[in-house]
Amino acid sequence: MLKSIVLIAVFAVAATHAQFKCPKNRGQFEHPEQCDKYYVCDEGVATEKICPDGLVFDQTIRLANKCDQPFNVDCGDRLELQEPQGTSDYCPRKNGFFSHPDPAICNVFYSCINGEELEMSCTGNLHFDEKSGTCVWPDVAARTGCATNAYKKLSDGFECPKEVRHDKNGLTILHPNYPHPTDCSRFYYCLNGIEPRQGQCDAGLVYNEDIQRCDNPDNVPECKDWYKDEDDKKSN
């Protein structure tokens, strides 16, 4: 019985290959129905192949590897795809660029390579658009339910202010800094104005809000004695 099943499977695969007639003796050619499947023809004999999960086949690419991101390829009527092999909510397929799984977070997206995700953020007030694989203006992305820029909060409660910060020339500060409320040697910075991180000044320096960077304590009146206890200990 098992032998019969194996033979049936072999014949089915052979029949599938036999149905595809190579347009040329050598080359790679698209599957008529499935966008991530293709055929490699060698001496007129077709071998069925499939792109890595998340990528699709583009016969027009002048490279040996013709699998590319879906937003770069016109699949036409070839709408079928292999079953997703995603590794997490961030990577619903093993390869590609994907929106944050929370639909309210429109400025963050993930680059997935073989199931490993890398979190990325759009600059300014842009939103990620899966159809183009890029960050675009909100009205172009046309995503609904997007929250405000401040989508993350640190463990101490700090979150990036919604107001866009400008320098003395009126230009937008892409990664603005903010003073820590209780620690002169620390400060906050917001990547792309939206993702909060905590920074630490080098030893002996304190954060100076006026110049937006770490400075000598003598230049920051409210923090001039911040290291006094340490200096007293060293002198004793």
Walkthrough of the structure:
- The protein has 236 residues and is an alpha+beta fold.
- It has a 3-stranded antiparallel β-sheet with strand order 1-2-3, with no helix packed on it. The protein has a 3-stranded antiparallel β-sheet with strand order 6-7-8, with no helix packed on it.
- The termini are far apart.
- It has helices at residues 2-19, 138-141, 228-235; strands at 27-30, 37-42, 45-50, 56-57, 67-68, 96-99, 108-113, 116-121, 127-129, 134-136, 177-179, 186-191, 195-200, 206-208, 213-215.
- Helix content is 13%, strand content 27%.
- The protein has 3 helices and 15 strands.
List the helices and strands and how they pair.
Elements: H1 2-19, E1 27-30, E2 37-42, E3 45-50, E4 56-57, E5 67-68, E6 96-99, E7 108-113, E8 116-121, E9 127-129, E10 134-136, H2 138-141, E11 177-179, E12 186-191, E13 195-200, E14 206-208, E15 213-215, H3 228-235
Antiparallel strand pairs: 1-2, 2-3, 4-5, 6-7, 7-8, 9-10, 11-12, 12-13, 14-15
> Which oligomerization state do the chains in this entry correspond to?
single chain
Give the helix/strand class: alpha+beta
The count of helical stretches stands at: 3
Percent strand equals: 25-35%
Reported for the largest beta sheet, the result is: 3 strands, antiparallel
- Regions with pLDDT < 50 over 5+ consecutive residues? 1-17
Computed Rg: 28 Å
The side-by-side strand order for the widest beta sheet comes to: 1-2-3
Helix content: 10-25%
Series of secondary-structure elements, N-terminal to C-terminal: HEEEEEEEEEEHEEEEEH
The overall pLDDT average reads 85
**Gap from first CA to last CA:** 90 Å
